[in-house]
């Protein structure tokens, strides 16, 4: 193997023909023989090039609607022959196999065909066979063959040829080979996913490959000694934080993205609601409020826990206006997530150079299907995403007293928030705003007490006559295993409770609620979040 390998013959077969004219003219100007297939050959002739048809090289016509054209020893022998192996050279000479030095291939648009909702037969027809075969052969023999699969690399190829008198370097070929195998792996992964999930309806197939592409490296992971990067899935997927447009601010960190995603997911529960503000710290909400005006929603969300909001993530379900932007910038905020922001609001945020502003467009449907992954030692945990939604008609009142209309509305508001609070989760809510949030405790009673403590601190900080837990509804993400957690909520002033039910001590908890004069609703659905 030598470092520099001259490019004398190129095989070009493209679905995406962007950049082809410039590439072909540059290669032709160096005397490179162009060999091409069907549509690519026709396009080359349109731009004035004179390609050799693949059928001329192989001695066989393209057949079966183009399914068979490059699957031939004259092609793969020219790609796989080891140029410094005497036996290989003898075989190539005996069978009149000409070496191919450069392969420029991209694949049938399988992903795009699926994404536009094509019929099954068309999807299957867009599974490329010859393209991946040529790519894999060329990439395997990268000691002698250059393989390009991305038009973005054409400029670097031409620079290589210019710098090396018509040859490519081993380092370049090696990098292009790695990129080629990443492409074919991702391509096969998308096909296997389509067959398993869309075509066969298998939720958990025997083998599951997940293809993704690097969007950007991150400064570090959860801690400075950990390296990290952001990847986005290949193929059709829901729009999320990973696809948000960053308008300003310093580079996003691992923690920024994780927390912003938590805020975005919670905010989606209020996609159809009045203006809503969510404040998140360390992936847990510390304030949520819905009001007729976005500015008022911000003030109410912040009032729930202004201490935890410092250095947090703010997400809103309406385009940001100047008055809300001005108010948000009064405290230190890491990231703001919004569908859009007007020019005046952007100008306000621009004063805070480190503040990241992410614009997401529409919010996703909280009931959308999908799966989530968690890495454990030696494996992956895969589950359906928690898209459970409870409607008023599904609620079951289990106490002597039924909730008032306002209490039921506050129960459902608290329930939507509790779904996104780390377990054990307790959320007090009143009049469309959180009053206190208890997250991530080892027992439910402590979560209830911590949330009440936060509410008492908020009352003192804001000069309210009493905590907003008084007269509130309280949501528990899972059933009360004992009555103590419910009684702690009653002590804080809650008058209504929403919880899944299902404990062996439900009768004891219901009796305690009746004795305290509480209204209690069962949802029949749990929302653990670990």
| Total beta-strand segments | 23
**Beta-strand content bin:** 15-25%
| Cα separation of the termini | 54 Å
* Shape field: elongated
> What kind of sheet is the major sheet?
6 strands, mixed
Tally of individual helices? 19
- Poorly predicted ranges: none
Polypeptide structure, described:
With 530 residues, the protein is α/β, with parallel strands linked by helices. The protein is built from 19 helices and 23 strands. The strands form six sheets. A six-stranded mixed beta sheet has the order 10-15-14-13-11-12, with helices on both faces. It has a six-stranded mixed beta sheet with strand order 18-23-22-21-19-20. A hairpin with a 2-residue loop joins β11 (276-281) and β12. The longest helix has 30 residues, at 170-199. The protein starts with a strand and ends in an 8-residue tail after the last strand. The mean pLDDT is 93.
Helices, strands, pairings?
Blueprint (H helix, E strand, L loop, with lengths): L4 E2 L2 E5 L6 H10 L3 E4 L1 H9 L5 E2 H5 L14 H8 L5 H9 L7 E4 L4 H6 L4 H6 L4 H11 L5 E3 L5 H10 L3 E2 L1 H30 L12 E7 L9 E6 L11 E4 L5 H15 L7 E6 L2 E7 L3 H11 L1 H4 L2 E5 L5 H7 L4 E6 L4 H8 L5 E4 L11 E6 L2 E6 L11 E2 L7 H14 L7 E5 L2 E6 L5 H19 L10 E4 L7 H8 L4 E4 L6 H11 L2 E4 L8
Parallel strand pairs: 2-3, 2-5, 3-4, 5-6, 13-14, 14-15, 21-22, 22-23
Antiparallel strand pairs: 1-7, 8-9, 10-15, 11-12, 11-13, 16-17, 18-23, 19-20, 19-21
Helix pairs in contact: 4-8, 8-10, 12-14, 14-15, 17-18
């Amino acid at each position: 193997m030598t470092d520099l390998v001259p490019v004398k013959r190129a095989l070009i077969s493209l679905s995406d023909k962007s950049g082809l004219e410039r590439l072909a003219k540059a290669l032709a100007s160096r005397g490179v023989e162009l060999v091409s297939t069907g549509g690519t050959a026709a396009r080359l002739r349109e731009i004035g090039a004179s390609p050799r048809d693949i059928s001329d090289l192989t001695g066989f016509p393209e057949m079966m609607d183009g399914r068979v054209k490059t699957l031939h020893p004259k092609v793969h022998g020219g790609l796989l022959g080891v140029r410094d192996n005497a036996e290989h050279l003898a075989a190539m000479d005996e069978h009149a196999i000409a070496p191919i030095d450069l392969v420029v291939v991209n694949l049938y648009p399988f992903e795009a065909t699926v994404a536009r909702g094509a019929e099954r037969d068309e999807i299957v027809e867009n599974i490329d066979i010859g393209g991946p075969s040529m790519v894999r052969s060329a990439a395997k023999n990268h000691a002698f063959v250059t393989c390009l699969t991305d038009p973005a690399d054409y400029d670097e190829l031409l620079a290589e040829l210019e710098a090396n008198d018509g040859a490519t370097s081993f380092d370049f070929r090696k990098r292009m080979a790695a990129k080629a195998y990443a492409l074919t792996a991702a391509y096969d992964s998308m096909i296997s996913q389509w067959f398993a999930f869309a075509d066969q309806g298998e939720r958990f197939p025997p083998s599951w490959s997940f293809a993704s592409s690097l969007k950007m490296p991150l400064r570090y992971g959860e801690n400075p000694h950990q390296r990290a990067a952001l990847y986005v899935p290949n193929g059709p997927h829901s729009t999320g934080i990973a696809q948000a447009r960053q308008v300003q601010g310093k580079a996003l960190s691992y923690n920024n993205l994780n927390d912003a995603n938590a805020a975005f997911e919670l905010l989606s529960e209020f996609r159809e609601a009045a203006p809503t503000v969510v404040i998140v710290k360390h992936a847990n909400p510390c304030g949520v409020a819905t009001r007729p005006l976005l500015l008022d929603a911000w003030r109410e969300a912040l009032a729930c826990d202004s201490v935890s909001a410092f250095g947090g993530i703010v997400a809103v379900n309406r385009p940001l206006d100047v008055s809300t932007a001005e108010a948000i910038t009064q405290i230190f905020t890491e990231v703001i997530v919004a569908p859009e922001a007007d020019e005046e609001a952007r100008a306000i945020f621009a004063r805070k150079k480190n503040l990241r502003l992410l614009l997401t467009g529409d919010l996703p449907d909280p009931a959308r299907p999908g799966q989530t992954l968690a890495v454990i030692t030696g494996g992956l945990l895969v589950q359906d995403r928690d898209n459970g939604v409870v409607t008023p008609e599904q609620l079951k009142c289990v106490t002597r007293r039924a909730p008032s209309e306002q209490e039921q509305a506050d129960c459902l508001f608290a329930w939507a928030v509790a779904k996104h609070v780390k377990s054990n989760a307790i959320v007090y809510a009143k009049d469309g705003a959180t009053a206190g949030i208890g997250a991530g405790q080892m027992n439910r009673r402590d979560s209830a007490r911590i949330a009440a403590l936060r509410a008492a601190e908020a009352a003192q900080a804001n000069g309210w006559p009493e905590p907003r837990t008084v007269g509130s509804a309280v949501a528990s993400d899972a059933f009360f295993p004992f009555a103590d957690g419910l009684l702690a909520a009653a002590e804080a002033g809650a008058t209504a409770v929403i919880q899944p039910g299902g404990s062996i001590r439900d009768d004891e908890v219901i009796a305690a609620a009746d004795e305290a004069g509480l209204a209690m609703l069962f949802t029949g659905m749990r929302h653990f979040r670990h």
